[in-house]
């Protein structure tokens, strides 16, 4: 029995139209193409309903047209039903656009065939005017995103664009409206590029590289928009790459980048195990507090009378991530146009049995230029994605550095010569000036590193002049804020000279050396290098005997170094636990910094024993009860490790009154704190039941 393709097409159209009730349809990046397909489907449906059963429906020409059209409708439905938010929006929209264009053209061909077959239709066939149907289909918008992207890539290669208007238009067309969506797209495209390179598909890889560059420019444009909205320009190092807002709780991920805690947690909760900025795979989910950047920001805010936004309020707002385009208004206006147009179509088809009403105005016009390219079909077949899991401190400048980049470069060139001068006075002036230039300008840090200052500054760490040495180490600290400079500083052999300063320098030089070592240690391999080079003992000495600022810098550096397993034992053997327990006194203002180090050290046997022997348990219980949210979280994590290690420690924890604050923590703590508190309480119960059975 032959297939009735008119019946199949009608069924497919009904299935396609039923998608309008899908909950997430309006958030689909290709939603406007669904609306346009819906318009065409509503013109086709009444014609097909009247045609089924007639001899004309069995015409070979019409049957072939219906078959082709049925396949396009089914493919479109499948694409809309199976949209995944962590796939490439650009390629998804390009694929949808290609199918929508084929659906439109095939519909026109079918109506042309019906028009030519009109005289063969039954006399009682109730039909609209096929000429009017053709005009209605032609009026359905056919905006060419492919064409817009091609032009942008051509302009990009020619070095003349794209313009910000082009970027916004493309972003809106493919559903890249927020900073988060832009960053996710960059991650996905990077994976697709790797797949293309592995398959030696150079043309595809080159095309995707061009798209990645467009995405990068969208992010930069959005960052510029955000900066222009601020009353006071904010140093970009102080802003979270995800929220583009001043950070209040900056944390470091395994790639070495710093983010606002709640925003990077949200990112990882989506299953994105890749750094949004560098697109490197994240080797773990540990978030290291970046106390140095936090202090920079606090000092800058105080100097500029700026109050950073509450990240929790931002993350729970209707638009937690900055918007490239005003999506709500644009979507509403487009949907209003679509709804109005559909209503006209609906009313027109019901008004008359002879012809639907003709929409008098063209809703959207585009040039009819061909935009097809050979080989695009292979790009649309997306490979599976990787990196997705299943479910002291420098005070920022109060005086802004001004001047053109060329004048800064000229000054830096001169300073590079002065740093190498045999004259102490010249070296003193040069290091002081580099310190000022590198203090609060990302561009200056890049220029200073580019002209070779790092090697000269590293050599000056051995200077016998106290001021030159202190300024040199502070310059390196400032330069290390730039992520690319971290590797340059390490490669210049700076670790051992920094340790020299840590042992022999002035108080200020020691503090800034500790802070620099922390900054360098955010690169995973540097944790091993710094530990093996002998930095831990002088850091522990600074922790115990330095000024308060030095103690804070040392604690921060020791925490980051102790993330590396081999360094934990070195930190414990150097006597850090005794000093850390002493600094649990709330009067020192270091409880949160100290607790996070103790929680790290408590993961090894030697650390558990040392914390117990040094009297740390009562203070950890106190931190669970009275500490900050983050302090309570880390204190409960440390106590869980201690209790699971030793029944003796478990009994001490219970005797110290830990149960009431732990119960409270299960209700009010952070997600991790609740988990640790619940596990501790379960462990207490299990221990009690075990004791009763033994008794």
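^ structure tokens above, recovered residues below v
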């Amino acid at each position: 029995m032959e297939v009735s393709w008119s019946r199949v097409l009608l069924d497919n159209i009904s299935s396609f139209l039923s998608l309008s009730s899908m909950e997430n349809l309006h958030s689909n990046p290709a939603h406007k193409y669904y609306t346009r397909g819906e318009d065409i489907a509503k013109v086709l449906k009444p014609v097909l309903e009247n045609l089924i059963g007639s001899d004309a429906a069995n015409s070979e020409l019409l049957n072939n047209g219906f078959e082709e059209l049925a396949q396009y409708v089914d493919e479109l439905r499948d694409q809309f039903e199976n949209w995944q938010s962590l796939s490439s929006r650009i390629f998804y929209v390009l694929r949808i656009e290609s199918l929508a264009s084929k659906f439109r053209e095939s519909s026109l061909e079918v109506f042309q065939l019906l028009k030519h077959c009109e005289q063969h239709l039954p006399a009682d066939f109730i039909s609209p005017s096929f000429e009017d149907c053709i005009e209605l289909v032609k009026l359905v918008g056919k905006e060419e995103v492919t064409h817009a992207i091609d032009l942008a890539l051509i302009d990009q290669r020619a070095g003349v664009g794209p313009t910000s208007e082009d970027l916004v238009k493309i972003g809106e067309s493919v559903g890249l409206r927020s900073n988060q969506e832009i960053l996710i797209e960059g991650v996905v495209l990077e994976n697709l590029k790797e797949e293309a390179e592995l398959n030696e598909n150079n043309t595809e890889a080159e095309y995707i590289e061009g798209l990645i560059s467009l995405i990068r420019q969208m992010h930069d444009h959005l960052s510029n928009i955000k900066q222009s909205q601020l009353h006071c320009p904010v140093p970009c190092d102080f802003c979270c790459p995800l929220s583009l807002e001043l950070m209040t709780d900056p944390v470091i991920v395994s790639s070495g980048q710093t983010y606002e805690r709640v925003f990077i947690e949200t990112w990882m909760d989506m299953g994105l195990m890749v750094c949004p900025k560098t697109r490197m795979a994240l080797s773990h989910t540990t978030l290291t507090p970046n106390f140095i950047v936090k202090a920079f920001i606090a000092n800058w805010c105080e100097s500029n009378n700026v109050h950073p936004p509450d990240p929790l309020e931002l993350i729970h707002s209707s638009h937690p991530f900055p918007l490239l385009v005003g999506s709500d208004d644009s979507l509403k206006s487009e949907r209003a146009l679509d709804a109005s147009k559909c209503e006209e179509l609906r009313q027109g088809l019901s008004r008359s049995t002879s012809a639907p009403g003709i929409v008098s105005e063209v809703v959207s016009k585009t040039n009819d230029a061909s935009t097809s390219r050979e080989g695009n079909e292979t790009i649309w077949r997306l490979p599976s994605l990787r990196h997705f899991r299943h479910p002291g401190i420098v005070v920022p400048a109060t005086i802004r550095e001004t001047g053109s980049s060329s004048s800064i470069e000229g000054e830096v060139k001169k300073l590079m010569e002065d740093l190498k001068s045999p004259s102490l006075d010249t070296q003193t002036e040069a290091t002081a000036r580099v310190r000022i230039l590198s203090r609060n300008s990302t561009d200056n840090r890049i220029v200073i590193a580019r002209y070779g200052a790092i090697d000269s500054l590293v050599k000056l760490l051995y200077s016998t002049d106290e001021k030159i040495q202190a300024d040199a180490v502070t310059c390196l600290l400032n330069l290390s804020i730039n992520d690319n400079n971290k590797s340059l500083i390490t490669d210049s052999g700076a670790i051992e000279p920094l340790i020299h300063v840590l042992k022999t320098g002035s108080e200020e030089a020691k503090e800034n050396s500790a802070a620099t070592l922390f900054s360098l240690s955010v690169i995973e391999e540097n944790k091993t290098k710094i530990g093996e080079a002998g930095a831990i003992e002088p850091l522990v000495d600074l922790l115990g005997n330095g000024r308060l600022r030095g103690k804070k810098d040392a604690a921060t550096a020791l925490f980051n170094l102790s993330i590396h397993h081999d360094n934990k034992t070195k930190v414990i053997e150097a006597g850090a636990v005794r000093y850390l327990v002493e600094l649990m006194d709330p009067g020192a203002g270091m409880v949160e910094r100290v607790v996070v180090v103790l929680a790290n050290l408590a993961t090894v046997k030697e650390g558990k024993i040392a914390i117990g022997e040094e009297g740390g348990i009562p203070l950890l219980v106190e931190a669970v009860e009275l500490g900050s949210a983050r302090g309570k979280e880390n204190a409960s994590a440390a106590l869980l490790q201690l209790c699971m290690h030793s029944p003796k420690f478990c009994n001490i924890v219970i005797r110290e009154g830990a149960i009431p604050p732990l119960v409270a923590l299960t209700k009010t703590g952070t997600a991790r704190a609740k988990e640790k508190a619940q596990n501790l309480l379960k462990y207490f119960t299990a221990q009690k039941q075990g004791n009763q059975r033994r008794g």
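The two ends are 82 Å apart (CA to CA).
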